[in-house]
Design goal:
Length: 144
């Protein structure tokens, strides 16, 4: 293994209804400003809070948008892609590609109180050891 993170891709059709602030996301990419090296695709750079995309919940930052209302986004200038989104109408169908990290090995439990996934003993053992050293030092130097 090369030590890199492995990914798999999944495609999904997402239908959004344009809201007061548009579709609720920003894009990057295009043939004139590649976001990913050797890929002129269009990517979601930001999901706007309370926008149509955020309320739907499926579109994520970093997703690649493959088509808008059936129109392929390959080989477009950035501004042409922006114009396509702006003129897409009220009901917009997006074909997107999600990039998912592959989980290698057993899946550990991550409870609400442990968002980082670090096992509790990895924290408690060093804290206990430091407490013991501090107590020993206190008792040792208190007698002097």
């Amino acid at each position: 293994m090369n030590g890199g993170v492995e990914y798999t891709v999944a495609e999904e059709e997402i239908n959004l209804t344009r809201g007061p602030s548009g579709l609720g996301f920003n894009i990057v990419g295009g043939t004139d400003q590649q976001y990913v090296s050797n890929d002129s695709g269009i990517y979601v750079s930001r999901i706007k809070e309370n926008g149509a995309a955020a309320l739907d919940g499926r579109l994520q930052e970093g997703d690649k948008i493959l088509s808008v209302n059936g129109q392929d986004l390959k080989n477009l200038l950035h501004q042409d892609a922006v114009d396509l989104f702006r003129n897409a109408g009220y009901a917009v169908s997006l074909r997107v590609q999600h990039r998912l990290q592959v989980q290698n090995g057993p899946i550990g439990h991550r409870g609400e109180g442990d968002p980082s996934g670090i096992p509790i003993f990895m924290v408690l053992v060093p804290v206990f050891a430091l407490t013991m050293v501090a107590a020993w030092a206190f008792m040792r130097y208190r007698q002097l």
